[in-house]
Amino acid sequence: MLANRFKQDIFRFSTYKCVGLTVRSLSSLNILDQKKNLSNCLEDLPSKAKVVICGGGVMGAAVAYHLSKRGWGGDTVIIEKERVGQGSRWHSSGLVGAFKPSLAQVKIAQSSIQLLKDLESQGKETGWKQCGSLLIARTRDRMTVYRRMKSQSVSWGIPCELVNPKKCQEIWPLLNVDDVLGGLWIPGDGVGDPYLFCMSLMEEAIKNGVGVKEECSITAVHSKNGRVSGVETTQGPIECQYFVNCAGFWARQVGQLAKPQVKVPLLPCEHYYLHTKQIGNLDPMTPVLRDPDGYIYLRERDGCILAGGFEPIAKPVYEEEIENSTQRCLPEDWDHFHVLLQELLKRVPSLNQSVLHKLCNGLEAFSPDCKWIVGEAPEIFNYHVAAGMKTVGISAAGGVAEATVDEIVEGYTKYDMYELDISRFLGLHNNKRFLRDRVKEAPGIHYGLPYPFHEFETGRNLRLSPIYPTLRDKGAVFGQVMGYERPTWFESVEKEADMPRPFKIAHTKTFGKPHWFETVQREYWACREAIGLADYSSFTKIDIQSQGNEVVDLLQYLCSNDVDVPVGSIIHTGMQNERGGYENDCSLARISENHYMMIAPTIQQTRCKVWMRRHLPVNGSVTLSDVTSMYTAICILGPFTRNLLSELTDTDLSPSNFPFFTFKELDVGLANGVRAMNLTHTGELGYVLYIPNEFALHVYNRLISQGEKYGITHVGYYAARSLRVEKFFAFWGQDLDTMTTPLECGRTWRVKFDKDIPFIGREALLKQREMGVTRQYVQLLLTDHEHELDLWSWGGEPIYRDGNYCGQTTTTSYGFTFKKQVCLGFVQNLDKDGIPQKVTNDYILSGHYEIDIAGIRYAAKVNLHSPNLPTKYPDKERDVYQATRKLHDPTQFLGRHYQP
C-alpha cells in the first residue's frame, strides 16, 4: 500500500516546498546516460600476449592499469565482450567507504581511495568527492558496533567521530532522528563514478601499451601441464601465460570455460537503486547516509538523491538467462522493494514529496560468504580471479587489482589475502542450488549486526560425519565450517525428549556475556577434570606418500621443522612462504618411512593442497590424497583418557610405549585400523582417533558407554577454543597468517635452520633472526574486567602499552581457570612516527597494558609463554607440551619421540 501511495506522489510533476528544498524536473538528457567511446582500441587480436584479462569493467581496467605501471602494458590484452563501460550507469551507487570487516579489506579500500585521489590530482575524471559518510544507529547494539569501530580506527588509520542525534541532523539536515541513538561520522569517506573511474584507468592503461579488444568474447581458456597456455575468442586464439578473470557478473560462467573448470561461486540477485529527479539547493557535498538498521543508504548524485539498500532476504536470479549488460536491467518489483522503501520514507520523510526519476532493478552477483573472490585459482596455475565485488567495486578495485598484479609479477602480495582467497571454497560452494539458497541471505550481511561467530542459515546439513545424527540428538548446536556441521556446544536434553531432535544452529547475538557461557563452562571443566568427547571430523586430512624417499625430501623443503623423525612420531610444523609467513600450520604423523598423514585446519582443505601441489616433483613421484571424508575424527580430552582407551584396546598406552606426540594404529572395541594420535591441539591430555567411517559409530558408542564411569561429556568447539586460548595456542586463520612468522609468535624452536634441505622462507627467517622481530605474539589477561556486566573482547581490539597504541588482539575467549577474559594478539614497538622498531622480551614485560573494548580501556597482564594452569591432576606430559618454549629440555620427560 505504501509503495502505491509513494508511486502516485512522486510522479506528480508540480513544484513542492519541503524542508527548504525545491523539487524540479530534470532535462531530457541525463548525465548518467552520457557515455563516450574508448579510442585506440585494437582492430585485430595479437597472436600472443603475456596476460589476458577478461572483462573491461572497473576491475579489469584497474588490473590493466597496475600491470601497465609495472612495465607489462605491452604484454597485456583486455577482452571485452561488449564495449568498455557498456553497463548502465544507473546501476551503481559509487559509495567509497574505508571501513571494512577486516584489516586486509581496509588496506585494500584505502589503496583504492588513494588511486582515486591520484587520478583526480592528475586531471583524470573519477567522480571522486570526499563528502564523508554518516552511519546512524537505532539500537544499543548498533552503537556498540560504532564504538568498536571507533576503537579500531586507531589501528586502521581511519579518522572518525562518534556523534549524538543532534549532530547527526546537523550533518544531514533532512534526517529524521526521532528513533536515532547516535552515529559515526567518517569524514574521509566519499563517492565516485565507476564509469568515469573505469574509463580513466583504461585510457591510462592504453597509453602505457595495454591492448583493448571490444565486442570480442572468450570462448575457452586452455591449460598445459596445469598452467594457463592460451585462450580462444570469437575473433581467434591468443597464446598467454596468465589469465585474469575480471568478468564480474559473468565470472562464474567464464570459470566454466576453462578445462578443468575453475569454480568461481557467484550468483546474482536483484538489487535496487532509487533515483529522484533534481532537488533544489541540495549541497553537492552532502555526505553519504547509511542506516544499517533499516538496511538503507542515501547519497547525492548530480543534484539528485540516489537511495538503495541491502534487504534481509534477497531475490536471486539464474544468470544463464542474462547474456548482456542490457539484460541485467530487470523490470522493477515494487513489492520486493517495499521493505527498503518503508525505511527510506521513515528516515527521510521529505522523499515522499520528491519526484521519482526511476527505480532501477539491476542484478549484482554475490559470493556465498559475501566477501570478494581474489587470488590464483586452485584448478589452474596462473589463472587469477578478481570478482565478487558486489556493489562496491569502486572501493575495492584499486587495492584488489594491486594485490592481483603483485601476485602475477612478484609471486606474492603485501596484503594478507587468505580470507578473500578463492581457495577458501570447495566444489560444494559452486553448486547452483546451494548458491541460489545462500544468495538470498548473503546481501543482508552488509548491514546486519556483526555479532560474534556469525552463522548462515541456508546451505546447511551438507557435510556430516557418521556420528552427526547421534550428536544432534545428544543436544549438539552446530556451526558450519567448509560445509561441515561442527558442534559448538551441547544443550541439555531430557531423556524423554522426542527423537530425532531438530537441527539447531549456533548464534551469539550479543557483544557481552553470551547465553551459552555456563554450558561451555561445564564442557571446559569436563576436559580438564574428567573426559570430554569432541567431533574433530572437519579437520583437513591429507595422505602424502612416495615409493622412495621423495616425500621426505619434499616435506623437508616445504616445512620449517625437521620432518625426518622416527616412524610413529608426530611433528608440528609450519609451511612458510618466501617471506617466512605461514602458508599452512599443521601436524604430520609419520605412518611409515615414506608415508605421512597431515592434519591441518578445516579452512585449509583447498589451500594447503594447492600450496603442496605447486611444489610437487614434476615426475609424479609424490602423491597427495585428500582423505578428509574417509575418516571420522573423535577427540577425547582429559586426565582419564588413557584409562578409558586402555579398556577398549589391547595396545599398551603407557608413556614408555605410546608417548605424547606420537601415532599408533589401534584396534578400538571391535574396530581396527584406527589411527590414534596422542595429542589434542588444545594442550590437554588426550587422543584424536581417526576412525574409518564404517567403524565410527561403533567406536563412538564404546567410548560413551565405557566412559560413563569417568564422567564423559560431549564438548563443542567453543570449549576447545577456550582451552587453547588459555594455553596460548595459535591457530592458522585466526592468529597465524601469510604475513606472520614463527619468530614473531614464539615458535623459533620449531624452525630447524640447519636441515640438509633448505626450506622455503629460510633466508627470510634467518634475516629476521639477525635483525630482530618488530612484533611479538602475547597473551593478555584482563584484570579489571567484569565478565558478567562488561562488553567482551571478541578480537580486533586495540592494545595499548603505557597509554600508547601498540597492536591488536586476534583470538579471545573467557579463561575458566584464570576466571578472566583472555586475549591473544601481537604487540609492536612503534616510534613517534608509527614506524615499528625491534621488540624484545624486556620491552614486552616492562610495559603496562590495556585493551580498548568499545571505547573503555581495561588493564591487562601480559604473558610471553604458556602459563602453567593449576589442575587437580598434574601430569608431566601435559606440563611439557607448551605453545611457546621456555628454557627446558622436553626429552627429560618424554624421550626421543617428542617432536612437537
TrEMBL record:
GCVT N-terminal domain span: 468-755
Domain FAD dependent oxidoreductase central: 410-465
Residue stretches making up the FAD dependent oxidoreductase domain: 50-406
Residues annotated as domain Aminomethyltransferase C-terminal: 775-862
Gene Ontology CC terms: mitochondrion
Top-rank taxon: Eukaryota
Pfam families: DAO, FAO_M, GCV_T, GCV_T_C
Family: Belongs to the GcvT family.
Record's protein name: Pyruvate dehydrogenase phosphatase regulatory subunit, mitochondrial
